[in-house]
Amino acid sequence: MEEFTNILTAIDSVVWGPPLIALILLGGIFLTFRLRGIQFRTLGLALKYTFKNEEDGKGEVTSFGALCTAMSATVGTGNIVGIATAVVAGGPGALFWMWLAALFGMATKFSEGLLAVKFRTMDKKGHVLGGPFYYIENGMGQKWRWLAKLFAFFGMCVGLFGIGTFTQVNSISSAVTGFFDPAMAYTVTLFGAEYSIATVIGGLVTAVFAGLVIIGGLKRIATVSERVVPGMVVVFLLFSFTLIFYNIDKLPAALLLIVQHAFGLQAFGAGMFGAILIAMQFGLARGIFANEAGLGSAPIAAAAAKTNEPVRQGLVSMTGTFIDTIVICTLTGLSIVLTGAWPVPGLEGVDVTTYAFQQGLPFPPQISAFILMLCLVFFAFTTILGWDYYSERCLEYLSGGNIKHVKIFRWIYILAVFIGPYMTVSAVWTIADIFNGLMAIPNMIAIFALSGVVAKETRDFFQRHKEGKIK
User: Fold this and answer.
1) Is 36 exposed, middle or buried (0-12, 13-18, 19+ CB in 10 A)?
2) How much is the pLDDT for 132?
3) Which of 58-72, 175-189, 201-215, 298-312 has the lowest mean pLDDT?
4) Burial, 449: exposed, middle or buried (Cβ in 10 Å; 0-12, 13-18, 19+)?
5) Contact 458, 115 (CB under 8 A)
6) What is the pTM of this model?
7) Contact call for residues 113 and 275 (beta carbons, < 8 A)
8) Could you write out the three-class secondary structure of 395-416?
9) How far apart are CA 156 and CA 413, in angstroms?
């Protein structure tokens, strides 16, 4: 088993190596220049569209609902655990390169959202299906259908075998157990192993609530996401801003430290170059993985938005990267740097962020830990919902629209959530990580191939907007 895990780790390091990271980052840079810095010029308009739905748009859910569905999958444990891992491994400078990845990634996310609406399909009942598989097939042509199927297969595997199920519910049950029963004082024996009662209850409650939402399909997922995602984001922002406010005197030094580490200024000679590479590697990789720009997941949700304007939905999709990385991930990272949690020996993962909250917030440590535990639980829960939707749409495309297959898949997905707390997640997470990276390859090929369509649609939209023809 150890040899198998080592093989998976080696494959993962190749898939998520410099070539893929460079492909996604260069794609964002290329689109930024081709679209004349659209993420900088139109961010205000994009945020306005995010909270103002299109009244006569065609689709299944509101633009805000589509964004929340996408963010339910994007805003997850990576915003709390992943950022801590990046800062510990790559130093505070990783945050700078994460910002860079997000700023260019916004242009990529804009293009994905635009293409998703431009090339989506809609039946007589108003059921929408779209995403990379359709902008590959309908945009690049039937001869590229094999590439679309490849993307759909990878996307389905990511949701079912890791990111959407096992790893998320395992994070939930671990967080609940870590708070309520850290000493494993109350245990039961299941499947030949000993588990805390808190683990069992946490996993069961998660599976039941996830099942109730998932069985209801897209509209129920979107409805729950519209209510839960904004709420959990606001709570996390509130306490993160409180932490920064109470440590505001340390903020200038923290920002200086981030810049110093980003450019290796704390090292000398060859060590400077090595420090820069380490910070870049972890910052860029975490930034890409956190906001999913270029991976092709978010446009699956964007395609269902009630809109008649592809560019409009592209702008809305773009704000997801801004909120997820520029705002949420930044606050997590700053909290860790401000409180000096990143170099503390023996701390890793969620323990780093927990330490930062306990040291930085003006509350008793148990309350701070409880707040972070709740944020982690809700972040992970909504990721379960978002990735179920992505996986279903990928399967629907692969099966030629066979809804029976989708309904069966839902129950398999719920079963995976149910058994998640009792799985060894290291190998499963690596497999999911590999599939996640493989999703990006066909998606980025399509974005490069269709960048001319993106540029033309964008020019046409803003010309009509300038002439007052856009409501």
Assistant:
1) middle
2) 94
3) 58-72
4) middle
5) no
6) 0.88
7) no
8) HHHHCCCCHHHHHHHHHHHHHH
9) 11
Report d(CA 409, CA 432) in Å as an integer.
Answer: 18
Decide: 67 and 254 in contact? Cβ < 8 Å: no
Distance (Å, whole) CA 66 – CA 117 = 11
- Rounded to whole angstroms, how far apart are CA atoms 34 and 32? 6
Q: Residues 302-328: what's their mean pLDDT? A: 88
- Write the burial class of residue 263 (CB in 10 Å: 0-12 exposed, 13-18 middle, 19+ buried): middle
Chain length of the chain: 471
Distances in whole angstroms, Cα of residue 20 to Cα of each of 110, 433, 436, 462: 20, 13, 11, 32
Spatial distance between the Cα atoms of 297 and 447, rounded to a whole number of angstroms: 13
CB 133 within 8 A of CB 394: yes
Contact 79, 328 (CB under 8 A): yes
Enter the tokens of residue 332.
């997590």
Which runs of E-coded beta strand occur in 200-340?
A: none
CA dist., res. 269 & res. 264, Å (int): 10
More confident residue, 277 or 244: 244
| Tens digits of residue pLDDT in 360-385 | 988 898 888 888 888 888 888 888 88
pLDDT digits (tens, 9 = 90+) for 63-100: 777 777 777 777 777 777 778 878 887 788 888 888 88
* Cα gap 267→249, rounded to integer Å: 25
- Taking each helix axis from N to C end, the angle separating 350-360 and 217-246, rounded to the nearest 10 degrees, works out to 50
Whether the CB-CB separation of 169 and 203 falls below 8 Å is answered with yes
**Dihedral angle, C-alpha 246, 250, 252, 255, nearest 10 °:** -100
| Distance from C-alpha of 71 to C-alpha of 74, rounded to nearest angstrom | 5
Q: Quick one: pLDDT at residue 267?
A: 52
Give the DSSP per-residue string, 272-304. HHHHHHHHHHHHHHHHHHHH-TTTSSHHHHHTT
- Residue 392: how many other CB atoms lie within 10 Å: 24
Q: Cβ distance 286 to 324 under 8 Å?
A: no
Q: How many beta carbons lie within 10 A of that of residue 406, not counting itself? A: 16
Of residues 229, 228, 193, the one with CA closest to residue 421: 193
Residue 76 near residue 167, CB atoms below 8 Å: no
DSSP H stretches of helix in 403-450: 403-419, 425-449
Nearest to 448 by CA among 152, 146, 132, 154: 132
User: Among residues 171, 159, 156, which one has the least CA distance to residue 206?
Assistant: 171
User: Which amino acid belongs to residue 374?
Assistant: L
The CA distance from 174 to 423, in Å, is: 12
Q: What is the Cα Rg of the chain in Å? A: 22
Cβ atoms within 10 Å of 5's Cβ, excluding its own: 13
